[in-house]
Amino acid sequence: MITRSLPSPAQPLLPPSSKTLNPSRQNIIPSSDSRKNPNFEPLKNRLICQLDVGHLRHAISTLDLMTQQKAPPDLTTYSILLKSCIRFRNFQLGKLVHRKLIQSGLELDLVVLNTLISLYSKCGDTETARSIFEGMGSRRDLVSWSAMVSCYANNNMEWQAICAFLDMLELGFYPNEYCFTAMIRACSNAKYSWIGEIIYGSVLKTGYFEADICVGCELIDMFAKSSGDLGSAYKVFEKMPERNLVTWTLMITRFAQLGCARDAIDMFLDMELSGYAPDRFTYSSVLSACTELGLLALGKQLHSRVICFGLALDVCVGCSLVNMYAKCAADGLVDDSRKAFDRMPAHNVMSWTTIITAYVQSGECDKEAIELFCRMISGQIEPNQFSFSSVLKACGNLTDPCIGEQVYAYAVKLGLASVNCVGNSLISMYAKSGRMEDARKAFDILFEKNLVSYNAIFDGYAKNMKSEETFLLFNEIADTGIGINAFTFASLLSGAASIGAIGKGEQIHGRLLKQRANFAWSLPSSWEYRAWKTRCRDDS
After folding, report:
1. Which of 51, 88, 223, 371 has CB atoms 3.0–4.6 Å from 232's, for a disulfide?
2. CB–CB of 493/508 below 8 Å?
């Protein structure tokens, strides 16, 4: 059971000495045969030079050549090569180097073993990383424990990361800044945020908060992601004795993502006054904030600046520009969005999805959206769930379920059919086409239903004069614990009006009045109720 304080380590709370962090290197010293071979040093230097310029495959060829010429590589060579594979994120070559290392018969030291844990952690192979870690036994040092905590935290195994951290403390190891950073990352969710707050206190006491800027960034992210607590995140930001561009951009991004677009723009201006030059990620976030607030004039000024700084061709910035022009265009036209899209030298799934969504949201360009989707897949770019969701909405707007079914079949092939946003768009498409039986089938097979799923089927039933099914389903949603919003009530009242069910409508109106205070947004209940009463009178 986890208590509200960190366990005391078995040894005094002092960071380990350099001797602890740097184990004996007797195994790294090359054998006498290698040193006697005149080819050893030249080949090793050649390998290092190849790694410096990112030529990993050439370096592995040199590694093989060293073995062939009776100048077998030492552990230092293997360690450098493994770290280069991690740095360039070529994990397959890293695994190949590991196999060659096993074949060499060298006894692995802590440096190499810790590097291997990091390699398998970063490629998502947590089982192999754990196997290496456990095989180290009593040889494990602070770097080993930090690597394992980080492995679990980076691979969505938060509880395992927390348990490993606590085991480390019980064995007398005192966490360093890297270990604290990984632990905070593991607590960046609502479930473990309370543990994160304990870690925050420990970080402040030990001085790592002031010593390492990465710790502060992770704390900002923890408060923002775990509970949307931007107030605490900003307090961390203000306490940080040192800030850099990454810190500023992180804070701006979290403000923009969590509905505080005005604060994001204010922070952007403060950052510039502090002498920091924005990068592509900063501009992407502040452009999103402009989109949220409908500040097209400011967005155009920022567009001019990114052109001046040569950032307009970046995919992240380009997507933000496409989205901004689509959502802020007063006449609903997508011409400026398309220009921003066409100027991008290369496209990925994110940029294609952004322009397809822009065309769908414009309300009059659904055919063009489907054509863009066809161009995307013909260009060998695989759609994601958002691509499918948008193009299915376009098919629904055109009441063309035949094309929609082909699109959905492709989503099934890619394993994305069960994703909520895809299923919800399919329900809406069938409902708009009047095919409520198919809409209900799409609803029933959806693995995880959310409020959007229920609203889509409610709206479909109401518009297709099948209100009895709506009320039966409404009783079901009450048992699921899924909240309801004003759109749900609007659909229900519309359904009641379509069949003249005055008693049912009054019940729904009463429930609306009770729950209205809980809505983040709502239509005026009196307006809904008057509209419903009017329709009932007209029908009678």
Report:
1. 223
2. yes
**In this structure, are residues 143 and 110 in contact, taking their beta carbons and an 8 Å threshold?**
yes
CA distances from 97 to 81, 86, 123, 143, 458 (A): 8, 11, 14, 21, 57
Question: CA 316 to CA 249: how far, in whole Å?
Answer: 14
Instruction: Indicate the angle between helix axes 40-52 and 75-87, nearest 10 degrees.
Output: 10
Residue type (1 letter), 136: M
φ, ψ of residue 400 in degrees (nearest 5): -120, 75
What residue spans of 105-155 are helical by DSSP H? 110-122, 126-135, 142-154
Please provide the size of the chain in residues: 540
Q: Which two tokens stand for residue 413?
A: 């092939």
Give the Cα separation of 485 and 502 in Å (integer): 21
CB 467 within 8 A of CB 461: yes
Is 526 buried (19+), middle (13-18) or exposed (0-12) by CB count in 10 A?
A: exposed
- Walk along the chain (540 residues) and give the pLDDT tens digit of each residue: 444 445 444 433 333 333 333 343 334 444 545 556 788 999 999 999 999 999 999 999 999 999 999 899 999 999 999 999 999 999 999 999 999 999 999 999 999 999 999 999 999 999 999 999 999 999 999 999 999 999 999 999 999 999 999 999 999 999 999 999 999 999 999 999 999 999 999 999 999 999 899 999 999 999 999 999 999 999 999 999 999 999 999 999 999 999 999 999 999 999 999 999 999 999 999 999 999 999 999 999 999 999 999 998 899 999 999 999 988 876 667 899 999 999 999 899 999 999 999 999 888 899 999 999 999 999 889 999 999 999 999 999 998 889 999 999 999 999 999 899 999 999 999 999 889 889 989 988 888 888 888 888 878 877 776 656 666 666 666 666 666 655 565 655 555 555 454 555 555 555 555 555 454 444 444 444 444 445 445 554
DSSP states of 67-112: HHTT----HHHHHHHHHHHHHTT-HHHHHHHHHHHHHHTPPP-HHH
CA distance 265 to 251: 11
CB count within 10 Å of CB 297 equals 9
Could you give the C-alpha distances from 354 to 21, 237, 257, 359, in angstroms and in order? Answer: 48, 32, 17, 9
DSSP type of residue 448: S
Answer for the pair 503, 480: CB distance below 8 angstroms, yes or no: no
CA distances to 63, 129, 220 from 122, in Å:
23, 10, 23
Which stretches of 172-241 are assigned E, i.e. beta strand?
none
Which residue in 174, 169, 113, 175 sits closest to 150, CA to CA?
175
**CA geometry: angle at 314 spanning 309 and 319, to 5°?**
120
Contacts of 219-224 spanning 24+ positions with Cβ under 8 A: 219/184, 220/247, 220/250, 220/251, 220/254, 221/184, 221/185, 221/188, 221/250, 221/254, 222/184, 222/185, 222/187, 222/188, 222/193, 222/196, 223/193, 224/254, 224/257, 224/258
Q: What's the CA gap between 392 and 5, in Å, rounded? A: 51
